[in-house]
Design brief:
The protein is mostly helical. About 90% of the residues lie in helices and about 0% in strands. The chain starts with a helix and ends with a helix.
């Protein structure tokens, strides 16, 4: 159970922490320092690397989360409200990520390959909004998952 909890928490930290860094630190720096026509390529390269970690985090969150529910808590009926809320929030985050990855991120890839900074910027804006939503959800999910049993 200890290994499952550690991997679960580390996966959440990598995903939510990465979104926080990208949204709150990298994005403002990119706007100040990088020329508009180069931003799409920078974001594409950065997100390509980050999304590899997100895919791994999602897999580990699902595996460890359900393992803990069924082996540690005795099934869904025995899990507290915070576990169900964390699960629902996490699944919503995953659906948002899947859309982000398979629609605007793929379009960003095509825009960068076509040297189209206008469309690249448009796709980065869509990604930014989805990451912002997921960041808020992620922070709420982390708070519920860590403090929910005490509320």
């Amino acid at each position: 159970m200890g290994l499952a909890i550690a991997l679960h928490v580390l996966s959440a930290v990598i995903w939510v922490g990465g979104m926080f860094f990208a949204y709150m630190a990298m994005r403002p720096a990119v706007i100040e320092v990088i020329e508009t026509k180069q931003r799409g390529a920078l974001w594409y390269q950065t997100l390509t690397r980050f999304f590899r970690w997100v895919w791994l985090a999602i897999a580990l969150l699902l595996i460890t989360g359900y393992w803990m529910i069924f082996k540690g808590f005795g099934g869904m009926a025995s899990a507290g409200w915070h576990i169900h809320a964390m699960q629902m929030g996490g699944l919503i985050m995953m659906l948002i990520f899947f859309h982000l990855y398979f629609v605007p991120f793929r379009r960003l890839k095509r825009a960068v390959a076509a040297h189209d900074p206008q469309d690249g910027g448009h796709q980065v804006g869509k990604i930014r909004r989805l990451v912002g939503i997921n960041l808020i959800l992620g922070l709420v999910v982390v708070a519920i998952g860590s403090a929910g049993r005490y509320l």
